[in-house]
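Hi team,

Filling in the usual template for the complex we talked about on Friday. All components are listed, including any nucleic acid strands or ligand strings, so the model treats them as one assembly.

SUBMITTER: L.P.
PURPOSE: interface mapping
COMPONENTS: two
RESIDUES: 469
SEQUENCES:
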Amino acid sequence: MTSSGFPGCQSAPAVPAHMAKSMSLLWGAGSPPCWRVMITLEEKRLQGYKRKLLSFQKGEHKSQEVLEVNPRGQLPAFRHGDVVVNESTAACLYLENRFQSQGNRLIPDSPAEQALVFQRMMEGLTLTDRLNSVIYYDLLVPEEERHDSALKRSKETLSTELQLWEGYLQNVAAGSYLAGPFSLADVVVYPNVAFAFRFGLSAGRFPKLAKYYSLLKERPSIKASWPPQWMSSRQGYDVLKDL
Amino acid sequence: MAAKSMTLLWGSGSCPCWRAMIALEEKNLQGYNHKLLSFDKMEHKSQQVLDINPRGQLPTFKHGDTVVNESYAICLYLESHFKSQGNQLIPDGPEEQALMYQRMFEGLTFYEKLGSVIYYDWYVPEGERHDSALKRNKDGLVVELGLWEGYLSKGSGSFLAGKSFSLADVVVFPTVAFLFRFGLSAGRYPKLEEYYALLKDRPSIKASWPPHWLEGPEEELLLKDI
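RESULT (copied from the run log):
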């Protein structure tokens, strides 16, 4: 199997076809957590897993089919044979540890490098929360509890957060991402960054994030798992355009 | 010794700090340098913290030149770096490992739901508070508690990932301890109470118990009715 020529991709020994076939993913489009797991499966050369696209809008994430795998009624809901791993970061960590020597290494060997991967990965979950608190404000907060002051504060917090990431990516270049070579930190964080630009984040005001976004847009695992409806329509909403 | 090149900046009564301290104890890294800071005096926003953690948050941790912020990152780092020392915190079996990772990340939701009730006034300015919001948060916490009560009832062992103490317990136990500290009813949540009783005297947990819980006033029992 030859390398795609993309920096960091290695050729891998042939993977038993049944390995991926015993995996199934219930997912929803436009969900960064679902996207993380799909990127990981691609990176670990586990294409061929079974997957089913469900609709959040139709409430399918609360269907019996999901509840049987994930009593929280949340996506992604992932199974590998008898092993269930819900929670996107958990599924990513499980897959990287289980298939460490296959596909691309997503956690480096040296503890010092691991420290940065783990830290940025966890910080990525804070970024997710802060994005959600702005983008989904009306979904999360009932009308009678909404305050302009609260949304304003959430936007300021998000803006500060994005500036932190802009700083982390000062030296972003091909092959040099959140913790050096592409890693679990990027798996967790990239979907959020793509999400932010989808919702109108200004590339002019966040040039390093924009560079990170466009560099990794072409990575095979990311391209292969790009949210389908993002491809078919133009830019969606612009709730983040003034940040 | 490795511990002597480690420094932890921490605050008492912080679940995230407690997680890191339990992990350090479990990996036999007692003797690490540490500094207790006061959240009330805003010491978490002081320069000494910002120099290591630009977020101005605790725990903040350094091992030699390696900085590791974020409690889960500290725990994952310590287990990886000191795998063969102290207690093994990530099980070998794929099923237990998967369950451990899942419970760890569910633990973040558990902690958020707890915080949305006990820290409601800290997070939400007075002009934005609503009884309906706090009630909704309490209802959410009750649903969450039901889930964990179920996990502990149906599990294959006494710990969150099965038969062995793991990183899932390291990160979630502090949340459980906080629940009882704030008045959660043991009668209504017997499995959580059993789990709490099982672990509260574990050496790593006893050694890192929040100091101000050992003396000083009780908290307001915000959870006694849920």
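MY TAKE: The mean pLDDT of chain B is 96. The longest strand of chain B covers residues 6-11.

Thanks, L.
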